[in-house]
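User: Hey, my collaborator sent me this sequence without any context and asked if I could get a structure. I don't really work with proteins. Can you help?
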Amino acid sequence: MSDEQAANLGQRIRPFRQAKASPETLKRLKQHLGVLSTVALKHLDQSLPWYRGLRPEERAALGLVAQKGIASFVSWYERPTTSPQWVINDVFGAAPTELTRSISLQKALQLIRTIVEVVESQVPDIAPEAEHTQLREAVLRYSREVAFAAADVYARAAETRGAWDSRLEALVVDAVMRGESQDSLRSRIAAVGWKSNENIMIMIGATPASSQVGFVSELRRAAARYSRDSLVGVHGERAILMLGGVGADRTGLDRLASFFGEGHVVYSPLAPTLKEAPSCAQAAFAAIAAAKAWPLAPRPVAADDLWPERVMNNDTEARHALVTGIYDPLLKAGNGLVETLSSYLSLGHSLEGTARELFVHANTVRYRLKRVCDVTGWDPLVPREAFVLQTALVVGRLDAETIEHPPETRQSMPRTAH
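Assistant: No problem. I've predicted the 3D structure and written it out in C-alpha cell form, which is a compact way to encode the shape of the chain:
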C-alpha cells in the first residue's frame, strides 16, 4: 500500500481517547503475542472451512497478516494518539497482491472478525477486570479500521485488475481486426476468458462523449444479456464490440446500439467460427467507413446492407459479394430474370412499362420480380433493396466485360532522346 493510500485511510482514525494503559497490561499483552497468534491461527483452521482449503503458501501469507495485525494492535494500544498510518502499512504492506485473488473481501472480513473474537476471548487473561471494557473497545475500534483498510486494498486491486482487463480486451479486439494467426489469436482470447467459438459478431460505432469507463462497463453488462461472451475495445473515437455465441434474434442489437455515441452503428455478418472473425470484422470496418453515404441508414445497420456504398468506396469484398450473391445466381436462374429486373429498374419501377418493353403480361413481370426476391433475398419492390440489386447488375456486367475482354497489355514505347 502506498503512503498516499495509507494517509487517506489514516484520516478516518481519530486519536483514541482512553485512560493510559497500565504498564502491567501492556507487558502482559506483549508477552501474550505468541499465544494470541497461535490461538488465532488454530481458531481460523477450526471455524473457517475455506481457510483449510487454501494452499500452504496462501495460509502462511494469511497467517503472517494476522500476526502482524495483532502485533500492530499492541503497538497502537500503547500509543493511541499516534497517527495510525504506519500501523496500516505494517498490517497490509507485506501482504502479497495474490491474496486479493486467493480470497474474496467477504472472506477477508471473516478472517478479521475471527481474530477479533479470539483477542476478545483472551482479554480476561491479559488485563485486570478494571481494564476489560477499555481493552475490548480498543480491539473493536482497531478492528474496524483494519476492516476499512482491507476494503480499500480490495477496491484498489479490483480497479487495477479492471484497468488491466480493459487493456487486454482492447488488445484482443485489435488482434481480431488485424487478422493475427489463429494460434496467437486463440492464446490471446483465452486469456480474457472467451469461450465461444461460433456465431461471432462485430459491432462498430462512435465512442460516446461521456466517460469511457462507464460506457465500457454498461455496454459489457448489456451485451451479457444478448450473447455468451463479449469484448469491448475503445480505439480513439471508435468503439468496437465483439460478441460470441450470438443467437438468431436481432432485436437486442437496437439496445446495444443505444450505448454508442452519435452517428452510424454497423454490425458484421455472423462468423461461423473464430477463424472467420477477422474477415467479418473487416466487413464491419468497411461498412462504417462507407455508412456516411447513406444518411437515412437504420441504427444499427448490417454491413451487408451497405454493399453499394462499400463498392463505391473501393471495397473489393463488397463487389465480390454483389456478384456472387446476386448477379451470378440471377444468371443461373435464367427465365429472363436479369432482363426483367434491368428493364424494371431502368423504367422507373413501372410494372406496365416493363411489360410493354418485354412484350409480356404485367403478371409475368410480377412473377419474375418475385422470383428475383426468392433467388437473391432482395426485394426489387422495396426502393432501398432495388438500389442494391441495381448496383449488383452494374458490377456484374463490368466483371463479365472484364473477363470477356481483358485489357490489352500496353507495350512500353522507346524513350525519345532530347
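In plain terms: The CA atoms of residues 50 and 107 lie 8 Å apart. You can pass these C-alpha cells on to your collaborator as they are.
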